[in-house]
Amino acid sequence: MLLGATALSLYLANSGYATDFIGFWEHFHLGPKSLGLFLNAHEWVNEGLMAIFFFNVGLEIKREFAFGSLSDVKAALLPCFGALGGMIAPMGIYLACNMVNGGVTAGWAIPMATDIAFAMGVYNFFKNRMPPAVAAFLLTLATVDDLGAIAVIAVCFAKGIVPAYLAASAGICGALFVACKKKVTSMLVYGGLGVALWYALLKGGINADIAGVIAALAVPAAAPAPPGSHAHGMEEGMEPTLLDDLIHNLHPISSMLIMPLFALANCAVPVDAAALGGVTGTPVGLGIMAGLLIGKPLGIFALCYGAVKAGICEFPKGMNGKHLLTVGMLAGIGFTMSLFLIEQALVGMPAAATSAKLAILCSSGIAAVVGGVAMTRFPVYFCEIICDEDEGCRPDLIVRARVQGGERLRRGRVHAQVPDRGRGADDRLRVRKFVGAGWNVASDEVF
Fold first, then answer.
1. What's the per-residue H, E or C state across 237-294?
2. Domains in the chain: ranges and CATH
3. Which of 169, 300, 430, 439 yields a CA-CA distance of 20 to 30 A from 383?
4. Model confidence, pTM
């Protein structure tokens, strides 16, 4: 949906409908004037709907801290080093490219961000060629990266500060803190306080989308999901929590509605020879391209490798330097958060914003392709098949699996781990085949 919306926005912005399409986002206003909320469609998407997106991001971050990859400080330390390197190096490269005549240093934060959804999406296409620990590493790195971007948006892009509204925001944050400590589970409370905080931040000169993150972090982590929830626990065997339920309900809205609308509103870039030339022909475009494609992987690799060599951290099981470089390239997929940072950093600079947006699209696409190709160069680490008793799964394997459920069945250099989960409603058995690193094998050669 997000890719389709991006392509549609680019098409409409470069078609006979360009004037009407671009004009709609800038000139169609709605909202109560008395409250100072008579915003155009573009502002409602970026300041309004994106607050819901950030609420969903905040819920996922809190869940990771409470139950996931960030709950173990020692395990999270290495990807935290990687995230730090992946923010500092791209910003440094961008600034180096823009310390010239015609450079725009205001865009220093644009190449620091990683798009979690896109990066994990590309990773999942080829995950059978990577150690399982790499997924948690990439997710943790991208999550910490998002936290860094959110902090930069809140601190560095405030404008026209109004102290009275900031004081009101502090009071609302205090109320959210009390609600969390009292383990209040009513979403009417968090929704009402979140909307009030959004308004106070908007009028106070702080990016209002941060209200979504703050409200999300106030939701009690251990509160159980409401009765009748269709959410699942984060890990197998865990009872679903309120966080799981909210993420389950909000994720489709975020991914199927908000993000496509964000792409439609922010990717409407007229593309001509001059605009394309600006991707690598201007300091802004060059800084973003170099920051994401060079700075991201090198920064992540340098700080992680240095931390491992210094004995501060160690690689997760099965992971090595080549996997780290590949993850670094996937982290170069900026897209959503980088586009959002453009809207904050390059206000009133339409030419620079156009070059920056095209550079984000190009560099994110290149990072996805290079990262994907790099993953295909690794041998199959594990693959998964579904065996159906009625469609040719070998009877002797099924019989032995039932007798030795949960034990390891040896076939020379191949190990088949058969979870003892019983029979499913469709009479299928799930078999996971682990193949040792360095031995590439087609799935039909395993048994």
1. CCCCEHHHHHHHHHHHHHHHHHHHHHHHHHCCCCCCHHHHHHHHHCHHHHHHHHHHHH
2. 2-70+100-157+207-270+333-357+372-376 (1.20.1530.10), 382-445 (no CATH)
3. 300
4. 0.74
**What is d(CA 318, CA 68) in angstroms, rounded to the nearest whole number?**
20
Rounded Cα distance between 365 and 372, Å, is 11
d(CA 56, CA 248): 10
**CB proximity list for 373: less than 8 A, separation 6 or greater:** none
Q: State how far the Cα of 335 lies from the Cα of 436, in Å rounded to an integer.
A: 35
Let me know if 8 is exposed, middle or buried by CB neighbors in 10 A (0-12, 13-18, 19+).
Answer: middle
Model confidence at 398, pLDDT cuts 50, 70, 90, reads: very low
Torsion of CA 111, 50, 168, 348, to 10 degrees: 50
At 381, the pLDDT band (50, 70, 90 cuts) reads low
**Which token pair is 379?**
């041998």
Q: How far apart are CA 143 and CA 350, in angstroms?
A: 30
Q: Are 352 and 397 within 8 A, CB to CB?
A: no
Helix (H, G, I), strand (E, B) or coil at 313: coil
Q: Are 356 and 346 in contact (CB under 8 A)?
A: yes
Q: Which residues make beta-bridge pairs with 435? A: 414
Q: How far is CA 222 from CA 55, 65, 139, 233, 414, in A?
A: 18, 12, 22, 11, 41
pLDDT in tens, 13-31: 999 999 999 999 999 999 9
Question: Could you count the other beta carbons within 10 Å of the beta carbon of residue 248?
Answer: 15
3-state secondary structure of 174: helix
**CB atoms near residue 266 (< 10 Å):** 24
- Please give the distance of CA 18 from its chain centroid, rounded to a whole number: 30
Backbone φ and ψ for 417, nearest 5 degrees, come out as -100, 115
pLDDT at 394 over 70: no
Using alpha carbons, list the distances in angstroms from residue 290 to 357, 359, 374. 14, 10, 19
